[in-house]
């Protein structure tokens, strides 16, 4: 029981940090472009994970093997996923981008059908209908019969980020690398690509100390420490569902922080759509569905 309590504490820590990142994204993107934020955050996260790899005595393992997987995985995460995600946050209110991004678990269930030969249960289908009905409510801001999208490209970016993230985890199902080593290798591949894109595009510009602090925060906590805390939680719990359900605490806290810190008005359409998305995710995690 003490082991479970410790794992749940790690899980709550990860969820608490993830609850702040939507606000951190919007704050940072007020100063810099998505590519600049991505490069700065990736650099900080790469340095943190590299230090931890060395501290845990995994340096030789990290250098010796796993690079064939990292060659493509690093282009998906961090490069493609975070660039598309930050582009969504740059165009949409934080509450909408955050809520739409929560559909990645359902996207993974549907993509597992053609990629892994898995079958969808009736609950999976119902969960998908509920969740993507929520997406529609958010995308139309409650005008569900008007086809009036406030920012269609922003919605496309947000949904594409869920597809990339779901594909990343499905393709990594057989990844034998130690998670910390794999994450550091991915960022080692991704960082030069991001540097090239940055120099080719906006270049390196000083945006002031608040922008630097926001970029460091995103890299340190969203991509670094939260990942490690969640890994400790999943590895230390007796039953995965005990910590996986903690993720449902994050969206309401994120909404409150976006409202009180960034001044975003709380839209009824966001609450309605997010409620449908979370209901779909909860339905997908029912024990009966896990068995079926």
Automatic annotation (TrEMBL):
Keywords carried by this UniProt record: Membrane, Transmembrane, Transmembrane helix
Localization annotation: Membrane
Nucleus listed as a keyword: no
Residue stretches making up the EamA domain: 7-139, 153-283
Membrane-spanning parts: 7-31, 37-58, 70-87, 99-116, 123-140, 152-171, 183-203, 209-230, 242-260, 266-283
Chief subcellular location: membrane
Membrane topology: Multi-pass membrane protein
InterPro entries listed in its UniProt record: AA-Vitamin_Transporters (IPR050638), EamA_dom (IPR000620), EmrE-like (IPR037185)
Presence of the UniProt keyword Transmembrane helix in the record: yes
Family assignment from sequence similarity: Belongs to the EamA transporter family.
Protein name, as recorded: DMT family transporter
